[in-house]
Specification:
Bound molecules: 2'-deoxycytidine-5'-monophosphate
Strand content: 15-25%
Number of domains: 1
Order of helices and strands: EHEHHEEHHEHEHHEH
CATH superfamily: P-loop containing nucleotide triphosphate hydrolases
Radius of gyration: 16 Å
Number of strands: 7
Length: 214
């Protein structure tokens, strides 16, 4: 029986790094759902679409050629055969991704793609709504938080311009699948923890929840 570990949290909380390391140690596929929303945002901007024009985005998304896969146990995405990876953290993508990912039809299309990963094997998936919407039935749900100051520092240490507080406010207040702590999620505040400490803190919870691993 394969498992899905859902890791949600606000921007720059460290959830991607934690998920990547955890997936590597458990031999599971690491799925970065934020990268999917970023890839679609990049494609929409390439197309000249207005991030606030939900009707146009709704029409456009059904025509988009999205190919989600995996390479070396990591999720990949190609759009129209192109790899958007080098552009996913561009400032204009950072600035438009919250608006575009609030469009219900964009979410419907991506949630369908994200659910397919569970058919490929064990998965650690990070995002905003993985425990609440994408895989509500999984018992393994974590919410990785960190105070805003620490998160802003982590992002600028990565050399990025990213208004994380504005993105969090948008992501938490949208109508469809807002960022929130799922009812049965285990919250870990990583503000004063190293990456390894967060990963180590997750193991006993997984065991308590009945997951068997070495
Ligand atoms: O994890 P990230 O910061 O790369 O995510 C970028 C944006 O994508 C985030 O601001 C909101 C959106 N997102 C989402 O709406 N749902 C997800 N499951 C993952 C990301």
């Amino acid at each position: 029986m394969s498992f899905v570990i859902a890791i949600d949290g606000p921007a720059a909380s460290g959830k991607s790094s934690v998920s990547r390391v955890l997936a590597g140690r458990l031999g599971a596929i690491f799925v970065n759902s934020g990268a999917m929303y970023r890839a679609v945002t990049w494609a929409a901007l390439q197309e000249g679409l207005d991030p606030n024009d939900a009707a146009a985005l709704t029409r456009w998304i059904s025509t988009l050629d999205i190919e989600c896969g995996q390479e070396n146990a990591r999720s990949t995405i190609r759009i129209g055969g192109k790899d958007p990876e080098p552009f996913l953290r561009d400032p204009h993508v950072n600035g438009a991704v919250s608006a575009i990912s609030a469009v219900p039809e964009v979410r419907r299309v991506l949630v369908e793609q994200l659910r397919r990963y569970a058919q490929l094997g064990n998965v650690v998936m990070e995002g905003r709504d993985i425990g609440s919407v994408v895989f509500p039935e999984t018992p393994y749900k974590f919410y990785i938080d960190a105070c805003e100051k620490v998160r802003a520092k982590r992002r600028s240490a990565q050399g990025e311009t990213d208004a994380i507080a504005a993105r969090d406010a948008y992501d938490s207040s949208r109508r469809t699948a807002p960022l929130k702590v799922a009812q049965d999620s285990i919250v870990i505040d990583s503000s004063t923890m190293t990456l390894d400490e967060v990963v180590e803190a997750i193991y006993p919870h997984l065991r308590n929840l009945g997951l068997k691993f070495d």
